[in-house]
Design goal:
This protein is α/β, with parallel strands linked by helices and about 150 residues long. It is about 50% helix and about 15% strand. A 5-stranded parallel sheet has the order 2-1-3-5-4, sandwiched between helices. The longest helix has 15 residues.
Amino acid sequence: MLIYIGADHKGYALKEAIKNNLAQQGYQPQDVGNTENDPNDDYPKFAAAVGRSVQDSPTEARGIAICGSGAGVDIVANKFQGVRSVLGFSTDQVFDARRDDDVNVLALPASFVDEETANRIVKVFLTTPFSGEERHKRRITEITEIELKR
């Protein structure tokens, strides 16, 4: 599985911690920036890099985008066709989003989750399968139709 990860200055430390944790588990996350903690950077650039990367391979790739509130990166990631991003605050919430909505990007709020919680959320995000239930497939098809009508 391809995992793209990006963050602005507020999410930089959490991004680095998650990358290290993922590497220890045998994953090879692709860092799309920022590669340094720059207090003057802006989250749209990094969220777009995650969204664009997942858009290119929405069923094989997953993305993790991080900023202070998580809301900004979530908004940007959801601008890309085929991307279904969720702002993740808890393992239960992310479990439901993966199982029911087949989300492929996780937006994390670095100002509101600690490293331990974030790593648990990421684990659920990466290991929970989509249910494949007909009603969930139907809803995803409806989402796709909305995207295509823009």
